[in-house]
Amino acid sequence: MEFDKIGAVVTGAGSGLGEATARHLAALGARVGIFDFNLPAGQRIAEDIGGLACKVDVSDESEVGAAFDAFTDWLGEAPRILVNCAGIGTAARVVNRDGELSITSFRRTLEVNLTGSFITLSHAARLMQKLAPLGPDGERGVVINTSSVAYQDGQIGQTAYAASKGAIAAMTLPAAREFARSGIRVMAIAPGLFETAMVDGLPEGAQESIAATIPFPPRFGDPKDYALLVEQIIRNPMLNGTVIRLDGAVRLQPK
């Protein structure tokens, strides 16, 4: 699939992996919709890349549906690309030291990370099914969800987060099989240790110590690395129904 003037929606595009992806796709020629809970951040990026910013809580189906309608009206066609980067990174033990449970946090994590990805996938796929097929393979669209290496290497305190990201990984193949007849591919990326606002807040020595655990390259992932893989998935029609770890060969050890 080529990028010139086709529609692409990126959730969580107000910062981090989503921002890098939105900017990269726009530079390739795509018309990009920035779906983010933080509207001012989304508007700032939309102004830079000539895109459309929509305030969206991905766990709210009505907001997601309205945003896809707004994007389709703006572009004149439904998006052919959806990249789900919206998510929250909660940290809580199942039972903390005071004997308190984290059930509320668990539910919210799944609502945003997992249900939010399912809602946006559902709306995007329904719209993509109505598009004209492109190219020799008759492709209509591509959906890329964001999992995490935590689904395989989860740490203490990541039970909710790992569960949400593991479920995202697990739904990749059945979704790809369901939408194969419509020419829609479904993939997932499982990033490792990436530069984030949380990492930026750590002392330099701590950052260097963590980065040294990554075999090669021995550094945190750059959000641009994630955006580059998004491009490669979109371009390669044989990438479908699988999860790609993007982690520099790191394997998180229990602490």
From TrEMBL:
Coiled coil: none annotated. Pfam families: adh_short. The lineage of its organism: Bacteria, Pseudomonadati, Pseudomonadota, Alphaproteobacteria, Rhodobacterales. This is Putative oxidoreductase. Its EC number is 1.-.-.-. One of its GO terms (molecular function) is oxidoreductase activity. It is an enzyme of class 1 (oxidoreductase). It comes from Pseudooceanicola algae. Transmembrane segments: none annotated. Belongs to the short-chain dehydrogenases/reductases (SDR) family. The keyword Zinc does not apply.
